[in-house]
Amino acid sequence: MQDALTALTLGSTYVLLAVGLSMIYGILRIIHVAHAGVYTIGAYVGYLAWGQTGSVWVALVGGMAAGALSGWLIYALMYRRLLEAPRYVPLIASIGAFIVIQDLLSKPWLMGSDRLAMQADPGLPSVGVLGATVSPEALYVLVVTAALLLALAVLFRRSDIGLQWRATASDRELAGASGVSVERAIASTFAVGSALAGAAGVTVAVYTESVFAFMGEVPSYKAFVIVVLGGLGAVLGPVVAGFVLAFAETLLIANAGFVLPRDAIAFLILVIVLIVRPQGLFGRARA
Amino acid sequence: MSQYVLSVIASGGVWAILTLSLNLITGYAGQVSLGQAAFFAIGAYAAAMLSTRTGFGFVPAVLAAMPITGVAAAALGLLALRVKDDFLVFATIGVNFIVVAILQYTDAFGGAQGIVAIPLPAIGPVTLQIGAYAGLVVALALLAGFASRWVERSWLGYGFAAVRQDELAARTIGVPAAQLKVVAFALAGLLAGLAGALYAYFLGNVFPQNFAFVISIQVMAMLVLGGLGTVPGAIVGAAVLTALPEILRPLADYRYTIFGLVLVITVSFLPGGIMGHGGLGDRALGRLRPRRAAT
After folding, report:
1. Where are the domains of chain A?
2. Which residues of A24-39 are buried (b: 16+ CB within 10 A; e: fewer)?
């Protein structure tokens, strides 16, 4: 049971990061590696906001705002001019941007140390479930994830902008011809998806009690594993895939005898799934 | 030349061969791979293990590492038959992580301690010092460049181009796309095996982290910077990105920031790369070439 709770918490952080990535992939079809840079920036700003106020909720808002802003900037300054270029061009640019973000954040003049301890108290109780305990930090992760996913679902299904996102993702030109402001739909997808990445950064910082420049290294590629497993560009897919992956990893590690590290497991699952279903678990085959 | 300059030249030659290997898959056949470091690792480990455990000499170890890597790469090429486009990018990234994890966690491959004390390269009774070794590596890089150029202009190269431009159309007119993809991976494996073996002898010790995912990114960056799909581009890109961190040594603290900015700026303003069509090097060379009448 404790394992299941760990997996649920871990899965929540995966999902927050992967959903935004999947939205961005869905609308622009670019492999946005720098998304994990946005996640790291969110964690740092969340750390600063927590340092000022001592509140993890202010930290969350700060991290999400910083995520939204930096994600939008990456789009406006970089991707916007690369939309017509061959597919590998935005990919390389994105990797370059990720390297720059990580390298700058690791500089001592910026943050003092390359690894900062963040012993935040979420002010939540410890909850016992079927003989296992949910720590206050884990409860914070679960609450934040549930609230944000619910809000996102409402936004997607019930609001005008959600309709515009879906229209633009399914056919950019047709959406534009039907009066959707494609530019605004793309920019807001980046802002909202990146805010979720910022939230993921803050929740991971609170849960692991630390912030460091290279915290996005592994999540960056693991989020893509989830997005691919979920069927590139889908929104529900990555939610399911994120939790499935977290449970699979936790189970395989708990029942020892498995020599590969956690990160390789994700990729092993990915390669096997792609061999069986080249369009991802929930993706539809394209002609 | 100092030892330092010679070793930078030798490593530049290794990177050039590896970049040419990626160029075969991605530049010619259009299959984007971000897992080239996996093949590099297989070549390096094959040579390292043959030389330290079975007493192979330098030349036989290198010659054996090439087909071993070629077969492994062809096997991965089978993956590209099923998995396409962005999914292939992720599958190759996955293969890179899996290969590094296997090397790291398997005692037979030395685990995290790697394989150490690879003897100095020697041809017959002559031990190659760094100067001779740098010369050999650069000569092999040029040879790999000529071989690539030959492939590019052969029927094989036209087949690759057809698969790259429109796989469905190519198959419709009878181009054996599936076989060509596997051949592209196999040939790339031969070159990556050569690069890996030369790198193992250059370093003297190999560790799993020498072949981490960042190496795959670096090789892709070299190729895109130089000019995807062109032999001069692969070589120039490898040379520039090998030399850049050394030239920037005074700015060592910011070398990754500068590296990242170079990537962003190059692909944003020069998507064809330095030597690609319309690039700086291409225009400079164009002035030297005899002009063809416009049609």
Report:
1. 2-217
2. bbbbbbbbbbbbbbbb
